[in-house]
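Notebook p. 47: complex prediction with zinc ion.
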Amino acid sequence: MNTVKKSSAVITALVLLITSLLSLNAYAANNLRYFERGVLTDGTNTAYYIIDKDNRVLYLSGDGVTTARTPDYPSAAEGPFAGRTDVTRIVIAEGVGRIGDYVFANMTAVDTLEIQSNLLSSESNMSAKAMIGCTGLRNIQGDNALLSTNVMLEVIKGAVNIASANWLSLVTNGINLIKTGVNGDNSLDDEIVAAMINDYIMTGEEIYLGNLDQTIASYEERVANPCYYNNEYHHNYQHFVSTAPTCTAGGEDMYICQTCNHTYLVPTEALGHSYEQSVMFEPTCTKKGVMEYTCTRCGDSEYHAIPAKGHTEGEWVVSKEPSKTGVGSIELHCAECDGIISTVRYSYTVGINQNANTVSALKAKYENTAQKIRITRNGTELSSSARVGTGCVITYVSSSDSTKIQEISTVILYGDVNGDGLINSADHSLMYGDAFSDKNVIDKSSAFFTAADMNGDGVIDGFDYFLQDGIISGGRNFDQYVLYK
Ligand SMILES: [Zn+2]
Ligand SMILES: [Zn+2]
Ligand SMILES: [Zn+2]
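Predicted complex, structure tokens below:
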């Protein structure tokens, strides 16, 4: 055993290390159970016990050959388990023929007594003093025939210190009688207990279930370690960085127990770069820029494209005036770079009926399955009941995609000089100054000038005023198609 222990000491230490990392309970991790065991003997009477430390069960047993008999003990204070609180259940296995005075005295944590042995037929088999001071006793479990005896009543009465030894009195004092056989939860069966007792006789004071060589070796490791007590390790680890991680490589942390020098290593993850970004080249409307990423820790650099910004829609600019013989063109310029985003057809819309010139009336006239229109005045879309006049803009878009502009057209309603869609006295007085003096109120480059120059001779004069008056007074017809015939 010693040879095995020495040659495998390092491996065992590693196993223990890993085990202690996984769980404080080395037995659970190794799938082992830990038992304490001992003998009660005065040289004449002998019984054996094992205590299942995990489940807090004490088994009193024989060795499977000879009927077990415990000695008597002189007082409750001198009982072999007196004062112990690590047992909650006592199982008296088959093969026990006698339990003497004070054997289980003062085990205050015991709440269950399980009887598997037919020793209650007389007080000489179980002393009424056996459980004196077991004040937590609440459950008596076992086969019916083993429980219904006056001896049992006396034992329990002695344990919990009640006045009269009858079942009714016990029940009123909270004692439960569980007449449902033997081997309750976590109990070992008699054969295992007897086998463990016999193993005790062969080898020593403590026993484990599992691979005996392995468990004894690991147990010897444990008990030799100053950090091992109360059935578990209590290492006092201090943390050291043995290899610091970098941006791209992992490191290693070391933990050393300050008491026993037990050491283990834990790999740590690479930190990853800590990039800060800065613009190297700004993108333009149409060209990508460059972003530089520099790691603040290691200086590593990366370069990534910044997407082009794309144009920003700005002003529409007429690049070719429409004429009698054909449409012109208009360009949408970028507000940022003045680049041309798109070019579409540009026209004047003439021939509007001044008595049927609401937005809805024009929509009825110009919209079809291929195109829709929207009509704006000074950039603001008009409602369907609004009148459309000179200077309003009709935008033709695809009926399937309203962002797809096909044509832009400026409305000319001859005679409507202020653009409100009506030809009335307000327009008449607006034209007056330009027609009969040189006030030049109306901007010559505007649609309003075209609307005022009703005979199309390039000058606003009395002839235009006369034509406008014909519309307002209703006295003379005016052909709104005059310029585009
Ligand atoms: Zn330690
Ligand atoms: Zn880095
Ligand atoms: Zn642009």
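Notes: The pocket of zinc ion (ligand 1) is lined by residues 227, 235, 257, 259-260, 262 (CB under 6 Å). The radius of gyration is 54 Å.
Next step: compare against the earlier run before touching the bench.
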